[in-house]
Structures are given as structure tokens and as C-alpha cells.
Amino acid sequence: MSTQAAAPPAEASRTSWLSGSAGRTIGLVVALVLLAVVGVITGGERFASIDNTMTILRLASVTGVLAIGMTFVITAGGIDLSVGSVTGLAGVWASTLATQTMAEDVHWTIMVLTALVVGTAAGLVNGVIIAYGKVVAFIATLAMMIAARGLAEMISGRQTQVVKVSGFLDFFRADVIGVPVLVWMFAVVAVAGWFLFNRTTFGRRTVAVGGNVEASRLAGIKVQRHVLYLYALCGLTSGIAGVMMLGRTTAGTSTNGLYYELDVIAAVVVGGTLLIGGRGTIVGTVIGVLIFATLQNVFTINNLSISAQNVAKGAIIVAAVLIQQRFARRSTST
Q: Would residue 89 count as lying in a domain?
């Protein structure tokens, strides 16, 4: 009798663990490992080489930085469709002739600061419109997506602006212990994002706002101001991504970051952050970004079409959402 009585709690504990963050993270790691195994089987040494691993990480770095900022916004129940366009705008503004001339006269970090200011300013505009203008996030950021892309085209005259500042190029082309600077930047942003999300009141307030806005307000959280900060943070990561795009392509163009918002949102959702808000994970987001970067690399190595790659991406997104719903129902019933 005692054995039978003890079984249900143990089973419930296992179910709770599997539906928790640890279980979801392990599932993502298993998916990434399986994808890597497929890459080794189909691509052989071309996939398994250190150089190819660095290629995957470099490919994941820009979308990864964007995804960190997006995780905060989606966890709070919002969305930002403008991250790709703001990335392009930040890169274009930072690579104008005037900015590059100033960078040569003063220091190349002027270009970096310009991109960060432009990205943060765009995020603040989004935040003001959403938090204080009461405009739905989807509409507000859609408008910013269109406006930022148009502004980038006006500034650049739809021309490619080649970066000629040697200090900037030398820094972003460098490797540290054999790892590209872009990958280190992604790692730093991911660690900082994890700390902010999991170890500060800012992160806890973000989860609270996404879970229940009214309850958060009654608990003393200044919801409007917090939402403003969240979109500013997302704009800041877009500025960082703009700088990274400049370092990777050595050119600023209005097409930089085109459609990146789709890959970013997909990675965040696959990583385990709920689209309806109230739950997010930085670790899951990082693994989600790596899954899509590895998938793209496997398809490229095997000379498969982009169309087939997009079909696979769509299937992964649908599967991730279905799994989220299943675990959500299971945890609710428990």
C-alpha cells in the first residue's frame, strides 16, 4: 500500500521536472546534438571541422544578439518587428562619410557609439508609442520596421557605404584565442542578458508584466516605464547587431538585417519563451539560435535549396509551439 501511495507523487515530480525549464533545455540540447549528428553524417569533415564550427558561431552571433533583446520583450507579452530594420539603420548611420571621418579624426569607437545611440533611440520611440500611446506592439513596431528601412535608404541613397576606418576593421576581423570577436560579443551579450533576466529585479518584473499586467501594476511595478525600458533594451541590442553586421560585411547598406526579425522571433519561440508572455529563457534562446544556424549550415554544405530550408524552419517552429502548448496544459492540470 505504501509503495502504491508513493508512486503518484514521484511520477508527478518527474512530469513537473520534464515540463520545467531544465527539461526544456535538455530537449533543446538533444535537438541540437541530433542536428549536429546529421551534419556529420551528411557533411563529413566539412561539417565537423573547427573552421566550420566557427562559421556557424559567426553566423549565429548577429541574430543571437538580437534574440537576447527580443526574449525580454516577448517575455513581457510584447513583440518587436523592427529589429532587422533598426539593425540596418544603425549600420548605415554608423558608416556614413561624416561618421567615418569623425571616427578617423577621434577614434573608431565613434562608429560603435553612433550605432548604439541610433538603435536605442529607435527602441525608445517604440516604447513611448506602445507604453504611453497605447498602440498595439505589433502595429507600432511594424510602423518602425517600415520607417527605419526607409530612413536607411534615404541616408545611404540606396548605395553601399564601404567601411574604410582601419581601426574598426582590424578590431572586428581579429580573433581572440582562435575565436572571432563577433562570437565573443555574442557571448558577452548572452551572459549579460542571462544575469539581467535571472538575477535582477528587472528580470523578475519582466516576467511579472508578461504574466499579468494588472497584477503587476497593483504590486507596485511601474508597468509603462518598464515597457519603455524593455523596448529601449531591444533597440540597444539592434544597435549592437548593426555594429556587428558592419564588422562582418565591412559595409553599411539599407538591406542589412532584412527579414532578421523572423529568424529572431523563431529562435526565441523555439528556445522556450512563450509568445503570450510570462515565461522566458535566455539559455533556451541561445540554443534556439544555434539550432537554426546549424540547420542553415547543414543545408548549405549539402547544397540544398533555401526553399527547403525555409520549409524545415517552419516545421521546427510549429513543432516548438505545439510542444509549448502540451507542456502548458500538463503543468496546468498538475
A: yes
